[in-house]
Amino acid sequence: MAGQGAFSEIIDGDVFKYYADGEWKTSSSGKAVAIINPTTRKTHYKVQACTREEVNKVMETSKTAQKAWAKTPLWKRAELLHKAAAILKEHKNPIAECLVKEIAKPAKDAVTEVVRSGDLISYCAEEGVRLLGEGKFLVSDSFPGNERTKYCLSSKIPLGVVLAIPPFNYPVNLAVSKLGPALIAGNSVVLKPPTQGAVSALHMVHCFHLAGFPKGLISCVTGKGSEIGDFLTMHPAVNCISFTGGDTGIAISKKAGMIPLQMELGGKDACIVLEDADLDLAAANVVKGGFSYSGQRCTAVKVVLVMESVADALVEKINAKVAKLTVGPPEEDCDITPVVSESSANFIEGLVMDAKQKEAKFWQEYKREGNLIWPLLLDHVRPDMRIAWEEPFGPVLPVIRISSVEEGIHHCNASNFGLQGCVFTRDINKAILISDAMETGTVQINSAPARGPDHFPFQGLRDSGIGSQGITNSINMMTKIKSTVINLPAPTYSMG
Ligand code: NAP
Questions:
Q1: Is residue 418 in contact with ligand 1, taking CB distance under 6 Å?
Q2: Active-site position among 124, 240, 271, 298
Q3: Nearest CA to ligand 1 atom 14
Q4: pLDDT for 1 beyond 90
Q5: Nearest to 235 by CA among 255, 215, 220, 254
Q6: Per-residue model confidence (pLDDT) at position 452
Q7: I need a surface site. Which of 75, 104, 347, 381 has the fewest CB within 10 A?
Q8: Is 226 in the pocket of ligand 1 (CB under 6 A)?
Q9: Roughly what angle, to the nearest 10 degrees, separates helices 173-184 and 198-211?
Q10: In the annotation, is 422 catalytic?
Q11: Ligand 1 atom 40: residue of nearest CA
């Protein structure tokens, strides 16, 4: 159970504590932020509303702890990460329960998220040991005009304090995808979890605490992003921001100072289906890609662009699968569960009503109860409809019928987003040409877009992001290069 057993020290009465200086603390604000269960629409948990003074204190201890951590042997850092990963996996059930209650994640997917996060942490430890265990050695005589009088030794060093801000949909996995690389690279981390998902994140942080990480190295401050977000992202002690979320990331990028930014933002991932595609494979991927976790995934299939000649057949196959999706509470492991908030459900409804008014074909009747929206396939969608361009983050999938591949590519590239895309065809040559033409961070051939496996590079173009994630890229991003140049009195050549 949440806040019980191994987790009993992280709660004070009915309010979860925040984590600073190696201890679980109650905020001096005396205020709590309510976390609404998306299924019952009632307050389920409460977290501390941290103050600016508490953030300042956290930044101070984080700076001090980082200096000592940077001098901790790499193998020891790795050892602690492996320990945290094992503890996290051991406690997968109570953490998964939080995910079910806070963000209505289907029960089995919630467990998978925690286990995947443990694996991610272990992979960071192993990748970090190899990547950071070596540097570069350069000699000067390869550049014109130079003798061999300079030896340059360069290696990767930590940035300092990394501010990690994940979104609600993977509050554990997207938190550890920042924590793991940051820590192995010798940084300290200040985590600001999403409000919906904060309790899952606090449990995850406690697993790092139990593993025995040094005091102050990891901190977790809670509170509404709209209230403490700017103070955190503009704090002078922060040396790097790793953010995953929506348009908030664009605003943060404009306000942040001269520090490295890793931004993983929204997507409108297109699925292009050609005439020669395996339509059963395409339909299975469209439904899995479009409706898993009720469409609340950055890499969900968010628009299908299908060649007119196979559109009827594809839509029929998609519909047959949509009819089999189970709808209901996350505790029963239903495929479609309530979306995260009432405002999110209202936003989705706005997109649906716009499509209705503009006469899209509805394959199912629109149905909503509270935050629960039944899966909906919208056919004959046209570019003048909002759903053709906007990210619903819900179980609503638009289909646009296209008369040429160029039309599909044009639609994909006209989007503000450029996260992922996918193409279904049996012709690998066509697939490669289309992949090259699609202006997105990744193109999947004959499969739905996906962020994992977590060590693959993951990046978005345009409003979908800055930089690249994936374990190796994140470790690289959270370090900088330091060189030492040895200047010799005379040219020297080592002889064979
Ligand atoms: P969001 O509203 O942008 O929130 C993301 C995080 O930012 C939350 O922790 C939020 O805290 C915090 N925040 C809010 N205002 C802030 C501010 N002024 N300064 C600093 N932080 C602030 O996104 P979301 O609704 O949680 O997630 C959905 C979005 O994330 C979608 O657009 C989705 O596509 C995107 N996403 C992208 C990826 C990717 O890797 N590309 C992966 C997953 C999701 P509060 O919860 O307290 O407001």
A1: no
A2: 298
A3: 225
A4: no
A5: 255
A6: 87
A7: 75
A8: yes
A9: 30
A10: no
A11: 264
